Amino acid sequence: MKKAWQLTCLAFVALAVYTLVLSFEYPYMDRLGPGPGFFPFWLSLITGTLSLALFLQTTLAKRAAHGSATLLPDRLGALRIMIILVGLVGGLAIFETLGFRITLLLFLFFLPLALGVRNWWFILIFALAGSFGVFHVFYYWLKLPLPMGHFGI
Amino acid sequence: MEAFQYWVQGFSVATLPTNLMFAFIGCVLGTLIGVLPGLGPAAGTAILIPITFNLDPIGAIIMLSAIYYGAMYGGTITSVLVNVPGEAASVITCLDGFQMAKQGRAGPALGISAIGSFIGGTFATFALMVVSLPLATFALRFGPPEVFALLVVGLSLVTGLSGRSLLAALIMTFFGIMLAMIGMDPVRGAPRFTFGITPLYDGVGFVPVVMGLFGVGEILISMEKPVLEIIKTKLKDLLPKREEWKVSAGAIGRGTILGFFLGLIPGIGAIIPTFVAYVVEKKVSKHPEKFGTGVIEGVASPETANNSYANGALVPLLTLGIPGSPTLAVLMGAFIIHGLTPGPFLFKERPDVVWGLIASLYLGNIMLLVLNLPLVGFWAKLLEIRYQYLYPGILLFCILGAYSLNQSVFDVGVMVAFGVLGYIFRKLDWPLAPTVLALILGPMMERALRTSLEISGGDMSIFITRPISAVLLILAAIVLISPAVRGVAKRAGKD
Q1: Residue A146 and residue B403: Cα distance in Å, rounded?
Q2: Closest residue by Cα to residue B68 from B90, B52, B91, B44
Q3: B488 at the A interface (CB within 8 A)?
Q4: pLDDT tens digits, B222-268
Q5: Angstrom distances, CA of residue B164 to CA of B91, B167, B168, B424
Q6: Alpha-carbon distance B155 to B175, whole Å?
Q7: pTM for the whole structure
Q8: B217-230 tens-digit pLDDT
Q9: What's the number of domains chain A is made of?
Q10: Cα-based distances in Å from B455 to B12, B90, B446, B451
C-alpha cells in the first residue's frame, strides 16, 4: 500500500504542476482585483506542496497512515471488476450510435452472462425490461430525452 | 407569530395530495436505496435528480429529501441482517445489530431502529422548525468575507474529521476545488481549463462525479466480494419487550439530542454522530463490556442519532447554504437545478419551499415508520437479489441519470472515470466526501474570496478584522491543527 500512496502523491504533484503552469495563461490580477488566474495559482501551489509533504511523510515514516492492506483484488475479484468496466466502456462507445434501448439491452444481457448466470430466459426478460421497459417509462412517461440511435430504435 | 404562520403555510403545502405522493415515493425509494448495498444515498439521490426535471420544484425537493432521510432508515436492515452497512451511517449498527440477528433477535433490533429513527427524526424536525428562522435571519448579515470563512469552516470540518491521514484528506479537498475550477470563472465569466472541450464549458458536473465516486466506485469495490451472507431469521416480534424498552428509552433520548446538535455543525458528516452516540451509550451503560455482543441500546442510540442528524443537518443547508455531507451536496445541487438557492434568502423568497419541505419531514417520518415496521420482511427479501442482476440494474440507472442531466455521453464518461477513481481512493482509504463537498462549494468559495479582496483592495486582513469571519477562521484553524497537535503529543507521550 505504501507504494500506491507514493504513486498517488506523485500523480497529484504532477497534476498540481500542470495546473500551475496552465494558471499562468489567465490574468492573476485585473483592474477590479484578483483575476481568473488567482485562485488556480494558489490552489495548485498548495495542492502540490501538500502532495509532496504526504509523499515525504509516507516515504520516511516507519508506520505511516497507509496501513498494510493490499491494493489489488484477488484474481476473481479483478475479473469481475474488469467485466463491469468493459461493459461500461463498451456501452459508452455505442451509446449514441445504437441508442439507449439497444445499448442497454446488450449491456444487461451480457453482464449477467459474463458474471456467471446461465438462466437465459431470465436474463433476456431482465435485459428487455431494463432496456425497452425503462426507456418507455422514462422517455414517454417522464419525458426524459434519451438517445434513439441511428436506427431510431 | 410569524414563525407560526410559516409552519401553517408549510403544512398546507406538504399535505397537498401531489406532495404527499412525492414524499411517499421518496420514502420508498430512499428505503430501497438504503437497503441495497452498492447504492448509497448520495449516488441514489443523484441518479433520481433527472426524473424530477418535469416536476414542480417543491414536489421535487420533497421527494429528493425523502430519499435522503429514507435511506437512513433502510440502511439499518442491511446492517442487521447482513453485517454490511446499507449506507455509511449504519456502520456502527452492525456491531450489535448483527449480533442480535445471530441470536434470533433481528425483529426487536429492526423495530427499535425504526421507532428510534422516528422519534429522532421527528424531534429534529421540530428543532429545525424552531432554529432555522432566527439562524437564517442572522445569516443575512453575512458578507463575502463571512461566507468565505464559513465555507472554510465547513470544508475544514469535513477534511479534519475524515480519513486517517489529514494530509490525504486535505489533498482530496483541494482536488475537489481544482475540479470546480474547470469551466467558467465564477466572477468574470471567462472559460478556464476547458481544453477546447465544449461540455467542459459548463464545468465538471457534480452529479456524474457523485454517481461515479459513490455509485460506480462502490459497485467496483463490492465486486471483489459480491456474495452477501444473509442471516436467515424470522422477522417476528418487532416490538421490543418491556425490559428492552426500559434500556432503549434513555438511549433514544441521548441519540436524538446528540444527532441533532452534531447535525448543526456543517461538514461533520453522517458517520460521526452515530459513533459518538454509540460511545456515549457505552460510557453511561452499567455493562459496557456487553457492547458488541448484541445489546439493544447499541442499536437504538446510533440509529436514533443517525436520523436526528439527517434532519439537523438540513439546518446549515437551508439557512446558510452549506451542505454537511455528499448527499446534502447533491440535494443542494437539486435545489440549484430547480432554480432555488439554499441559504437565508430562500426563507424570504420561497417560504413555501422551505416550510413545505420542513413540514414534509414530519409526514415522511410517519410514512417511513409504517414502511419499515410492517414491511420489513419485504425489504429484507430484496437482499436476496443476485448481484449479477442487482449491480447491472444499479449501473443502468447510473447511466440513465448521468446522461439525462445534460443529454451528454460525455457526462456518462465522467461518471465512469470517477467510478474508477472512487474505487482507487476507497482502496487507498482516502476520503471521498471532501472532494464532493469541495466540488460544489468551490465556485462559491472562489467568488467569496475574490469579491472580498475586491472590496478590500487586495488586503487580506479583511478576513481577520471582521469579527464573524475572524472567529470562523480561528475555528477552522483549530479543527485542522488539533489532529496534528494530538499526534505530536501522542508521540511525545510514547517517547
Answers
A1: 8
A2: B44
A3: no
A4: 898 877 666 666 656 777 888 888 889 999 999 999 999 999 887 77
A5: 17, 9, 8, 16
A6: 12
A7: 0.89
A8: 989 998 988 776 66
A9: 2
A10: 43, 46, 14, 6
DSSP 8-state assignment for residue A34: E
Top pLDDT among B160 and B86 is at B160
Alpha helices (H) in B338-386, listed in sequence order: 344-349, 351-372, 376-382
| Domain ranges, residue A11 | 2-60
Cβ–Cβ < 8 Å for A91, A107: yes
Residues B210, B39: Cα–Cα separation, whole Å: 11
Render pLDDT for B190-206 as a digit per residue (tens, 0 to 9): 899 998 899 999 899 88
* Reduced 3-state DSSP string for B43-63: HHHHHHCHHHCCCCHHHHHHH
* Cβ atoms within 10 Å, residue B455: 14
Identify the three-state secondary structure at position A29: strand
Q: Are residues A50 and A105 in the same domain?
A: no
Which residues in chain A have Cβ-Cβ distances shorter than 8 Å to B393?
108, 126, 130
Q: What are phi and psi of B467, to 5 degrees?
A: -55, -45
Write the single-letter amino acid at B188: R
Rounded CA-CA distance B332/B323 in Å is 7
Of the residues B152, B399, B488, the best mutation for testing chain A's interface (the one with the most A CB atoms within 10 Å of its CB) is B399
The dihedral built from the CA positions of residue B440, B443, B444 and B446, taken in this order, carries a sign that is positive
Helix ranges restricted to H, B140-197: 144-160, 166-181
> Helix B106-139 to helix B93-102 angle, to the nearest 10 degrees?
160
* pLDDT score at B357: 94
State the complex-level ipTM.
0.94
User: In this structure, are residues B305 and B120 in contact, taking their beta carbons and an 8 Å threshold?
Assistant: yes
Residues A49 and A88 reside in one and the same domain: no
CA B115 vs. chain centroid, Å, equals 21
- B192 beta partners: B183
What stretch of H or E contains B17?
A: helix B17-35
B479 grid coordinates: 479543527
DSSP letter, residue B224:
T
Q: Are residues A99 and A47 in the same domain?
A: no
Taking the CA of residue A9 as centre, how many other CA atoms within 13 Å lie in the half-sphere pointing to its CB? 23
Whether the CA torsion B235, B237, B242, B245 is positive or negative: it is: positive
The answer to whether residue A120 sits within a structural domain is yes
- Under DSSP, the state recorded for B187 is T
- State whether A79 and A137 are in the same domain: yes
Taking CB atoms and an 8 Å limit, are A54 and B220 in contact across chains? Answer: no
pLDDT digits (tens, 9 = 90+) for B77-129: 888 887 777 677 788 888 898 888 888 888 888 889 989 999 999 999 999 98
Instruction: Give the count of beta carbons closer than 10 Å to the beta carbon of residue B232.
Output: 9
Interface test with A, best of B211, B216, B221, B224 (most A CBs within 10 A): B224
Which among A43, A64, A117 has the least Cβ separation from residue B174? A43
Chain A contact set for B185 (CB, 8 A): 26, 36
- Is there a domain that residue A34 lies in? yes
Residue A148 maps to a domain: no
